[in-house]
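#struct-pred

JT: dropping the chains for the assembly here, can someone run the whole complex?
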Amino acid sequence: MMTLLRRLYYLLNRRRFDEELANDLEFHREMSGREWHVPLGDTLRVREESRDAWGWTWIERCGQDLRYAARLLRTSPAFTLSALLMLAAGIGVNVAVFGFFSLIALQPLNVTEPDSLLRFHRRGVDQYAFSVPYQEAAFFREHARTLSAVIGVNRSSVFLEGERELQQSCFVTANFFSALGGGVQLGRVLHAERDEAPDAEPVVVLSDGFWRTHFGADRSIVGRSIRVNGQPATVVGVAAREFGGVGTGLNPPAFWAPIAQQPYFVKGSTLLTDWSVESPGVSLWGRLAPGQSAKAAEDELESLAAELRLQQPEAIWEGERLLSEPGGYAITMMAGTRRGTGAVVRRDPVYPVIGLVGTMTLLVLVVACGNLGSMLMARGVARQREISIRVAIGAGNGRLVRQLFTESLLLGLVGSAAGLALGATVLQGLLTATGSPAWMDATPGWRVATFALGMGFLSAILFGLTPALQIGRQRHRAHSARQILIGAQVAASCVLLIVAGLLARALNHATGSSPGFEYERVITMSPGLAENGYTAARARSYLEGMHERLRGISGVESVALALSPPLGRMTMTAVAQVDGRQVGFQMSHVSGEFFETMAIPVLRGRPLRTDERRVVVVSEALARQAWPGEDALGKSLELGDVFTVVGIVGHVRSLKFGETDTVQAYFPVEEHHWPSLTLLVKTADSPNALAGTVLTVARQVDPNLFPAVDLMSNAFRARLEGAEYSTLAVSSLGLLAQILACFGIIGVVSYSVSQRTREIGIRMALGAPPVRVLAVVLHHLTVPVSIGLAVGLLAAAGLSQVLRGRLYGLSHFDAGAYAGAIVLFLVTAVIAGAIPAQRALRVDPLQALRHE
Amino acid sequence: MPKKEMPSGALTLLILRVLKSGPMHGYAIAQRIHVLSSEVLQVEEGALYPALQKMLLNGWATSEWGVSETNRKVRFYRLTPAGRKHLAAALDDYNRVHEAIRAVLKTS
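RK: done, full complex below.
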């Protein structure tokens, strides 16, 4: 240990020690010269050997190598610039993707001690829910000892005066800000004692984004009164810019208000008293008390739930556990408020998407590195003279390889810095373009910087090691290595092109063909009856009244009801028993007119009738999946009750990543569903004009309600947008890889031409036709390109198998996409090869023979 | 008399032993070893200075500026307590091995 410290000390003061040593030696020489007249060896050598004892020679050598490499790169700016551009592109895309992943999954949210923050979801024996009844959350908040704070967040849309659309807002337990460490830039935060008191005045704290976009960042806002759902409330603060809170998805809400005041804003709301799982409830977050573990908190909440079940046997599930996951990361918020049955909680398919994009970007880097590798090899041959000289004056093999690799390493490092800058810029641009919230800041932190550095190192190994070894060993005809590099490039860019093609075609299919239902002419209207405390009976009479009135409007073709309509915010999944097997599907409860309104064809049997029980209509795909090779009509399906299949309908695409679409089951509306139903109105022609009428009618029937009225086509487009972004991203990656690969081919062919000028000259002098000459030049490309193509095809086929399981409805073998990618690749490769190959044809035999 | 090169372990031992009698500069160390060995052992600077650097690094010796008999500024090497300890241990080792070798050689 001490030795190490002394060694470091020597390193830091090595100039002084070196001088002292030189002095020692000089003195020694003086003395011995005087007494013995002994000829002495080279003092420099002794000095070097002595310095070796300090153990830092390698640093000096490294420094020498680096200086030399830097000088070399400076003297060939064209090579350096193209190499750096290539690396910056390859590393940049990886940095951008990793940066996004880091933002949502690695970088903690802007809250105090994100590591001790947990998010809980309910888990029963065969059901789960990501929202918790408010009362249950309140019980935990009061009794939990392992948690220092329990936070409940209810997200609702509200109507703000002067706004055309409903706004997302959050009703939170008033400890929200203090528990998360959220601050304000103006006014004050919410306080548990003050704002949860029974006589507290209604208050809201605006989010920074909403304050800026809707109040023009007016600093006099604090103390002003705004109307929420028609009710006055005082703005008491504006949250700090970087505070996004939790429980809101990725976008901060318009405002946060105390959940205790939610019934004041939402007339008739039973949020605070409703124990049922249908209640919107709250998403539950907890802050671990010091020294407590997540396991301890789960155990405590489980026993608290068991205790609560004694009082509320209906509401609390048997064996209910509250499972936790780390709450301090953005990705936790993506779970939303899903609920469903089954033993396995379905996760949001964010990771597969990121995995896919990450694989693609790595492939781009592979292409870039392959390219660089070929460039370095070509350069190595050009440097043959220099290397021979080095060998001649005694550079060992290892020293030579180290020198060459240091050059690559330097390139990799500079490239990673360039890639870091490029990637961060691209990511920031994308975030801004997609309107991401302020806290999603692409400025690279240490994680991203380390990643970029690692990528630079990795690529240095990828592109630099083989050439360094080959050149170091003075194997100038490094054919096989170069061919492998080309093959790898071809394979990687082939995979990218094919997958991009597959995704593009899948998207085309999704947008080009019908999604399986009518969306252009349908208006959705969610009155929010449950939120406003309507009982089932009241809800039914309201909806039936609406139904009558809407039917009376000219231009309305039909009106239907559904619990979770297509493209809606809520999807329900269920796993039912069919002949002892488990079959999973999406479920909805719909009224009889649903199929007619949505234009979903009834293929066999009949649609549902109002007030029917124990019947079900299944989609064609579900029928095939559940009863393969049999007639599904009349078969039964067990889901709590036994349901008989009375009809088979066409399937509906959900257009969502990872959704097992096309597998649907429709059940009749049951009594307790009425308050949660959505009205669907199909119009005879364009629905735009009628949307306003629907809202007016609704407001006439009950002015306390603020229904969300939207065109289904809007939701459809919004849904597609996500898919379009992904396809666009993958296509750009494919394009980038293709461009890089073309550069690689151009480089390799021009190298080959320049190396064979003599040979070409002789051939031409002997009368070889141009085709023969071209064949000579391109000859050694054919093998690696065809092997690369074959490997790429296989890899793409494998990857698309994986993709099919997780994303979209990719077809089994999309010959079009494969053929298209191969043709595109070959055409560009031939063009890329032809440009430098032309030079071969222009070779003047006389000139060429005189060459050298 | 042929001049013998010696293994570096032995050189370190000799240097430590020589320094035990007081600090001295590199040339004096070489001289002293030469003289004490009745001019059999010749310490080359190519071996001496690397060995000295290693001793400095191991903390067996320290160096300080002094003035030589020719009135020149030069580094003097001084044995540290750690160096003393190492010398004792090394001497022990050496004696044991020496005894053992002698014992083996005596059996004829």
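JT: nice. Residues 81-106 of chain B form the longest helix (26 residues). The CA atoms of residues 81 and 98 of chain B lie 25 Å apart.
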